[in-house]
Write a structure and sequence with these properties.
alpha/beta, Sig_transdc_resp-reg_receiver, 4 helices, globular, CheY-like_superfamily, 23% strand, five-stranded parallel β-sheet
Length: 124
């Protein structure tokens, strides 16, 4: 089935290797291209500045550090992003309260819907 996600180049920011691999598999199944993976805030900021991407999936908590500096870089570049978090929306900084967010652990179709709505403003 054709999807608006097909061929999208995405940055994945996730500090837990198993979750990152699972996320990469899901994105690949949607037809996305994972252009880069970051497990630390420093790497996330660098990739947010460097990569030519269409969007990003950001884990909010990276080993005790918040992903917000990378999110700010993406926002400044006009790159849409979504959050995935194990802490729920209540834990988000107010400056990012509007960002589409999915609670972990997440299901494949919920992630697909979040990407469609978060990256395109389109109903899944």
């Amino acid at each position: 089935m054709p999807s608006r996600l097909n061929g999208l180049r995405l940055l994945v920011v996730e500090d837990e290797a198993l979750i990152a691999l699972t996320l990469e598999d899901m994105l690949d199944g949607f037809g996305c291209v994972v252009a880069g993976v970051a497990g630390t805030l420093k790497r996330a900021v660098a990739l947010a500045d460097e990569l030519a991407i269409d969007g990003a999936v950001l884990d909010v908590n990276l080993g005790g550090e918040r992903v917000y500096p990378a999110a700010e870089r993406l926002k400044a570049r006009g790159v849409p992003f979504v959050f995935c978090t194990g802490y729920g929306r209540a834990g988000l900084d107010q400056a990012f309260a509007h960002v589409p967010t999915l609670d972990k652990p997440y299901q494949e179709e919920a992630l697909r819907g979040l990407l469609l709505s978060g990256l395109f403003g389109q109903a899944p």
